[in-house]
Amino acid sequence: xxxxxxxxxxxxxxxxxxxxxxxxxxxxxxxxxxxxxxxxxxxxxxxxxxxxxxxxxxxxxxxxxxxxxxxxxxxxxxxxxxxxxxxxxxxxxxxxxxxxxxxxxxxxxxxxxxxxxxxxxxxxxxxxxxxxxxxxxxxxxxxxxxxxxxxxxxxxxxxxxxxxxxxxxxxxxxxxxxxxxxxxxxxxxxxxxxxxxxxxxxxxxxxxxxxxxxxxxxxxxxxxxxxxxxxxxxxxxxxxxxxxxxxxxxxxxxxxxxxxxxxxxxxxxxxxxxxxxxxxxxxxxxxxxxxxxxxxxxxxxxxxxxxxxxxxxxxxxxxxxxxxxxxxxxxxxxxxxxxxxxxxxxxxxxxxxxxxxxxxxxxxxxxxxxx
Length: 371
Known about the structure:
By secondary structure, this protein is of the alpha+beta class. It folds into two domains: 4-211 and 359-370, no CATH class; 214-334, no CATH class. It is built from twelve helices and 21 strands. The strands form five sheets. Strands 1, 4, 5, 6, 8, 9, 10, 11 and 12 form a nine-stranded mixed sheet that branches. A six-stranded antiparallel sheet has the order 15-17-16-19-14-18, sandwiched between helices. Strand 4 and strand 5 form a beta hairpin. Helix 4 packs across helix 7. The longest helix is centred in the middle third of the chain and has 17 residues, at 170-186. It starts with a strand and ends with a strand. The mean pLDDT is 91.
């Protein structure tokens, strides 16, 4: 079951920050300087922190807290992506330099109306400690410091939430574990491990976030002309010309922008019948296994000819990125269902790289856990 605990968060003194967007944009690199300038204030009491992000009249509400790294070790915080060792080491050094976690890992769990209703009631009861417009709308945070309310929230998650699933922040989670393991190796047994055995988390019920697709641009046709590429694709896909930009409407469809024209690719039944696992049935997996081979790309994780465009920017952004490049082709996808993400994670599988884009997105420096 999900084990969470309160902490004393640090928040920036927004009244003293002239350009808030510039401040948060640079928090990732300048956080130690911000601390030295005493821009951040540590809260007097431990608490949980209700977080809300309102984007174009749609609000998402979650809970910022410390999750137990033991849940991560035991598999109760479930992963669905591989991490890169070099990136982990870079993040571990940044963590040591900052002596703080400055961006929560996004965790989701199956919809629970009782938990969500209770968080909404607390939002109405208290005033936010922070309210700021930044990038994607209004961000607000409410501290919950009353002991009975802290205990109630912790009990809710302990009793009602089994597994939680990483939406965004696989590298931050892995790096937090590395830091904890390093502490255990160096500890003399007298130090308090509470600062180390935790993961700064933002927990969202599945009805309080959205998954968007991540579209792709490939800067090669592998020697094919546009006509030859379509002929090659037709061996495994139905290829239908479109007058309007192709935004897939089902999980198997793939939109394609080629030579200033839109197409819709639908896998043939002969291709689909060999796909058994939920992971293999993802359109991105089908694209990786069958379309990229035609384009001569072996490893989508490392090939720099693949560019990514998050789905929030629309399919038109794919067309504009391809532009007049006769040797580039764009692809659009249907968003991965949260149920599929959970099923893949529960099966111990990993999703293809850059499969999902979550809203809301946590921002560096909004809510900080100092060690």
